[in-house]
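ok so I'm stuck.
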Amino acid sequence: MQIKWSEKKFYVLSIGILIVMFALTLLQNFIRYRNHSSYSVWISIVYLSISIILFIPVIILTVRLQRYLKNRFSRGYWFLIMLSALGILGLFYLLSNVILHSLGYFDHFVDVEYARYYFGREALYHLILIMGAAVFVQFSKSNTETITVYKGRKKITMPLSLIHWIEAEGHYLNFYTESDSFIKRERLVSLAKQLEPEFIRIHRKYLVNRNEISATEKDKRDEFLVLKSGKRLKIGQSFKPINW
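replied:
not stuck anymore, here's the structure
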């Protein structure tokens, strides 16, 4: 299963869901509490606006964190997602508390009544978005499926799936397939971000196609990644351990 949505579309959908949640919750609060003397529509609007506006950068950072967890700890991905989700909700509660306190709504930085309000309903909405982001990250493809490279002066567009590994050499990158090599002027660190999670960085000079990895080997103090073609690439000290 592969999700073809871009991150931009996912963020737009997430914001749309937050807005719908805002409207429905505001309507529900009005119907339920409109006859209570302590109820204020304005306070509900402020609380819910914080839940929407503040959570937009949170969901973006959440997706980046989840991509990191997927790349580095793929086997324990969902366990770490649950732990990080609890941490994200806790941090969001504290951060929104501080903002509301600075606006004069609370006397203290941690308000018990707001805790009941947030964890009674808003936290559930945010948890749904966090888990939706985790599913998106788990099954999404790399933003790039083909890449433009050069053979001499000839410009070629080729599928990334054909590339076994990429090696940095000066200001250029060498792209190696099963039987040929190509070149492109680009920085490895920039390309690595574009090609994750299908390609992983194992060395300051090497980027490797996950699907081509066969095993890892140790030779004294050095560790190597072995590709299905038999090619051995040294793993950099700062890139260990390699989770593939």
